[in-house]
Amino acid sequence: MIAAIPIAELSTDKPVPLDVADPCDSVPAGAVSPAGVATTPVESNEFGCVWKGPTLGLEIGALPASMTKEVEAHVAMANRNSTDPLAHLAWLRIDGHYAIERILEFDRAKGCWLTLDVSAPAAVHAVTYQIDPATGERAESDTDTSVRDLCPATRKIARNLLAHLESGERAWWATSVHPTR
User: Fold this and answer.
1) Alpha-carbon radius of gyration of the chain
2) What's the CA gap between 108 and 169, in Å, rounded?
3) 109 within 8 A of 128, measured Cβ to Cβ
């Protein structure tokens, strides 16, 4: 963990490394494997690409704001100058990239969100949450459980995703039909 993310070090000079219209085309199975989810995405929505496993859900996508705006918003949340109260906040570096790890107080699933700096006009996010095996929907959790069980998996996924995005390769399902189309 680091004390804060220095906004002066953030850049927006690179293109967004995810296909914003369909991020599923940009994420390979190897990036999501630490989550133990299906290797093929099950949904693509306005928040990104969704994978589900028996007990864990994962979403990856591009955010409409730059990392600078994300840092500013999370500083406001941390200072209680926002309507989004935080249950957990950590400033991180993952393989040289700044990241914001957070859990929102009002999120009953206590999903672990990572916002990743990719030096582009839009930041990239990854979020994991527990799935209720009986319903296939988000399960309620608590902050301590999510920080202990979900956030380490989200960090591994972020590390894999960053390595993949830096390689410039497309996902294997980008050239085949997948269930999100």
Assistant:
1) 16
2) 36
3) no
Residues 6+ apart with CB under 8 A from 174: 24, 25, 26
**Residue with tokens 């990719």, as numbered in its chain:** 118
What is the Cα–Cα distance from 165 to 54, expressed in whole angstroms?
A: 27
Q: Is the Cβ–Cβ distance between 90 and 143 less than 8 Å? A: no
Q: What is the CATH number of the domain that holds 126?
A: 3.40.1000
Structure-token pair, residue 80: 């209680």
Task: Answer yes or no: is 104 within a domain.
Answer: yes
Residue 48: inside a domain: yes
Tokens for 180?
Answer: 């999100």
Over residues 102-139, the pLDDT tens digits come to 999 999 999 999 999 999 998 999 999 999 999 989 99
138: DSSP letter: B
Domain housing 104: 7-136+143-167
Q: What is the pLDDT of residue 175?
A: 35
Helices (H), the chain: 29-32, 67-78, 143-145, 151-167
Question: Per-residue DSSP letters for 6-49?
Answer: -GGG----SPPSS-SS-GGGG--HHHHGGGT--SS-SEEETTEE
- pLDDT tens-digit map of 48-74: 899 998 899 999 999 988 999 999 999
